[in-house]
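User: Sequence in, structure out. Go.
Assistant: Echoing your sequence, followed by the structure tokens.
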Amino acid sequence: ASGEMEVAAQTIGMGATPATTLGESVLVIEDDQDVRRFIVECLANLGYRVNEADNGYSGLEQLQAETPDLLIVDFAMPGINGAEVATLARERRAALPIIFVTGYADMDAVERVPGPKHLLRKPFDVVGLSDVVKDALLGTLGLASPAAPPQLNPV
């Protein structure tokens, strides 16, 4: 796992730029300790405030205490899966952006989850993680992408 972190640090220097200066909060719910650590450390290095949970029930408890700006949840977890976590989370905050992390995807179950959602397929790198997080936050916080340069009309 330490090799992954070294790769993450190198990758951050090679293209993943700090996502924002707003310090958005992200809750990561992932049962695989190595994957969770990788996500948490990458996001922290990119400037996000990150909380973590190792199962869906613990994650839902954290959601009751504080609603993050973004939820990243493993799709396939024992006990309560990511789709169930997302559905319960959306009962508390309908517009909560959600990223499902998965090695496979039961797309029918993902599609049944109401509201905005994104998919991050394993294996992924820090650039892929950063890109999907930016997209999820920009799409749901209503932040505009940088405007295209103005077009000059011919005289």
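User: And one key feature?
Assistant: Confidence is low (pLDDT under 50) at residues 1-15, 17-21, 141-155.
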